[in-house]
Amino acid sequence: MLVTTKEMFEKSMKEGFAIGAFNVNNMEIIQAIVDAAAEAKSPVILQASSSAIKYARINYLMKMIEAATQEYENIPIAIHLDHGPDFETCKMCIDNGFTSVMIDGSKYDFEKNIELTKQVVDYAHSKGVVVEAELGKLAGIEDDVNVSASDAMYTDPNQAEEFVKRTGCDSLAIAIGTSHGAYKFKGEAKLRFDILQEIKQRIPNTPIVLHGASTVIPELVKMCNEYGGNIPGAKGVPDEMLNQASKSGVSKINVDTDLRLAMTAAIRKAFVEDPSVFDPRKYLTPARELIKETVKHKMIDVFGSSNKI
Ligand code: TD3
Ligand code: ZN
Fold first, then answer.
1. pLDDT tens track for 79-93
2. What number of H helices and E strands is found in the chain?
């Protein structure tokens, strides 16, 4: 069933678990994620960035997601715009049936971020749609999001309280050391749980969102590399830290890189094991299966969202 994130976030805050938000851009990925959610009996957020919308085309995306929500009537499924760059993109998604949008004003200064976020909140709320905003900057390069490591800035808990009050946003993405992509840490992985704690104290009723939260699952990187890939030095957020975040007030955890790795690893393996293969279903079927298992693992073993529908 198609829902906003309101109820699932309320439940997540009350019961101390997180909901996975998985990036989608084609049919196999959508099916894998909702199949996993159904098997884990987990609420789920399907999210698309503006570049994913350009790639898949919005009508195709919406129709496929509609099919998914009809197939799984008892699974709460939200459809969310990831990193909305401006008001117009948010409006376009709201007008096309998204139940949640993110306006990413983190590239602007505090006042401009508030102004832009407020504009999106006013329109979204008039249509029954919820809004995620971002305060603080993540390091890393992923699609349209490009912030150099030196610009990486942790979220200021003082500002968070004022920001939420003045914008009326429904959830807040924060920067506590994560970053987008497959290369998150040079040495040890480190997240500022102390900042998360402080933010939770200031805005205890606002669901917190963690971007750049892929584990960069070592087995998947290894599998890519074993079957002809070349992804050296990739490193993500360990499962234990994500599990801790899920129990410490993070309500939404974004995952894209791990899905990309799963899909690529499975396809590479299929090609190497049978070089004569040229039926796309022969390599997309194992790809869909590996994405599903990856998503299920996160829901059941890491985020704690299974049996929370
Ligand atoms: O917003 N996203 C998805 C990808 C960003 C732009 O397309 C995330 O926060 C997920 O990050 P990752 O790279 O750790 O999966
Ligand atoms: Zn992100």
1. 999 999 999 999 999
2. 12, 10
Phi, psi of 267 (to 5 degrees): -70, -45
Reported pTM: 0.96
Domain count, the chain: 1
pLDDT tens string 205-232: 999 999 999 999 999 999 999 999 999 9
**Over 146-171, what HEC string results?**
EECHHHCECCCHHHHHHHHHHHCCCE
What ligand has the least distance to the C-alpha of 254?
1
The CATH number for 19's domain is 3.20.20.70
Report how far ligand 1's centroid is from the alpha carbon of 274 (Å). 32
Which atom of ligand 1 is least distant from the CA of 216?
14
Distance of CA 161 to the CA centre of its chain: 23
Distance CA(63)–CA(60), nearest Å, equals: 5
Q: Does the C-beta of 49 come closer than 6 Å to ligand 1?
A: yes
Place of tokens 């750049």: 212
Nearest residue (by CA) to ligand 1, atom 3, is: 256
